[in-house]
Amino acid sequence: MLGTSVRCYGPSLHRGRVSGILLRWELATILSAGSTVAKAAFLMFRSRGMRTNNPVLRDKTFQGLFADGERMTMNGTVAKTGLLLVLSMVSAYWTWNRFDTALAGGQVETAIASITPFLWGGLLVGFALAMVTVFKKSWAGVTAPLYAIAEGFALGGISAFFEMRYHGIVFQAVGLTFGVLAVMLVAYRAGWIRVTDKFRMGVVGATGAIMLLYLVDIGLRAFTSMPGIGFIHESGVLGIGFSLLVVGLAALNLVLDFDMIDQATAQGAPKYMEWYGAFALMVTLVWLYMEILRLLSKARR
To answer: pLDDT truncated to tens, each residue of the chain (301 aa)?
Structure first.
């Protein structure tokens, strides 16, 4: 797990650097929400049966795949998901420790500069690896672990920065993320949440709208003098309510992912698709973590 020694400097310091980090955080949120915003739009028009919002787990993902040898299993997918999480935590710890070491000298800007290459590198390399994994599923055994490592570098830096501003927030976010994962898995296995066509379409439509809203927001902030869409960033009732909604949507995407992986195992998908399923779950978990981090930061302001 991440270390606890990052110093808390409060939310009011170094606003110039803070704005730069927050913009990278917004970009990370968009990319990690599926690593495939463009792919989502492409597949939405291409496939009639939208079985899950997560673009890497669309209805046609497992069609045409036949297992000549070992077949995909849920247990295998869960084990590989755990491995990806461990890899991401290890690389996140490395970036976190780098930030903390630089911060020991008391220079916040130096600490931020020390992790900036890993933030950008992790985001861009992670996105590229996600695209490769989506289109070359048989490579997932290699690309999925590399994706997890790249995402860890980015998330470690972002997490260390937020820990500096809001002491204890990262461990709350990590705990809530795994808590939500456990609750949704139990709810799915117990049949408390039934995945119907209407359910799928509702989650897909709502999440697609959120992704479009995020793209518009970051476009306004990056290319105009406008501050973006207020309620996405505000800490008032509307802002917190919006974040709760998005966290809920991310959680429902986990249910859709569980359902699709169940269908894949029933269809006898090949063994390497366990890596692909683990990658897809990783994408959703990263998005969920980012949204919980956003929600908690709003509550701290």
So the answer is: 454 454 555 544 444 444 555 555 566 666 555 443 333 333 333 334 444 556 666 555 555 555 567 889 888 998 999 999 999 999 999 999 998 888 887 777 888 888 888 888 898 898 889 889 888 888 999 999 999 999 999 999 889 888 888 999 999 999 999 999 999 999 999 999 998 888 888 887 888 888 888 888 878 877 887 777 888 888 889 999 999 999 999 999 898 888 878 888 888 888 988 998 899 899 889 989 999 999 999 998 7
Terminal-residue alpha carbon distance, the chain: 26
Where helices occur in the chain by DSSP H, the ranges are 15-32, 37-46, 74-103, 108-135, 140-165, 169-189, 197-223, 230-233, 237-266, 273-300
Domain ranges of the chain: 23-300
Angstrom distance (rounded) from CA 12 to CA 20 = 14
> Is the whole model's pTM more than 0.85, yes or no?
no
DSSP 60: G
Buried b (16+ CB within 10 A) or exposed e, 51-73: bbbbbbbbbebbeebeeeeebbb
Q: 71 in helix, strand or coil?
A: strand
